[in-house]
Amino acid sequence: MLLGKARKIVFTMIVVLFAATAFAATNNLGAKFLDKAEQAMEDGNTVDAYKYVNQALAVTKDEAEAANILYFAQTVYTQRLKELQASYDEMALIDIQTNLDKYPRVENTTIKRLVKQIQSAQSNKEKAEQQQRQDAQIKQMQQSTNTMKEFAEVAKENNEIQKESQELIKEGFEEQRKTTEAQQREQNRKLMVIIFAVIGIAVIILIVILLVGFIAKKGFKQQEMQHEQYVQAFKLLAANQSQTNRIMLGGITDLYGSNPTLRLAGTSTWAPAAALPDVDLSETDEEELKQLAVKCEEIGTKIDQATGRKNNSKNVSELVYKLSMQLGLPSGLAMLNFCAAMVYDAGFLGIDPELLSATDLTDEQKKALQGHVALAEKHLDFVPKKYWSIFEDAATKHHENIDGSGYPKGLKGDEIPQIARLIHVAESYVSLSSRRNYRQTMDKESAIQKLKEQPDLYDTMVVDVLNEIV
Question: What is the sign of the dihedral through the CA atoms of 327, 331, 333 and 336?
Answer without folding.
Answer: positive
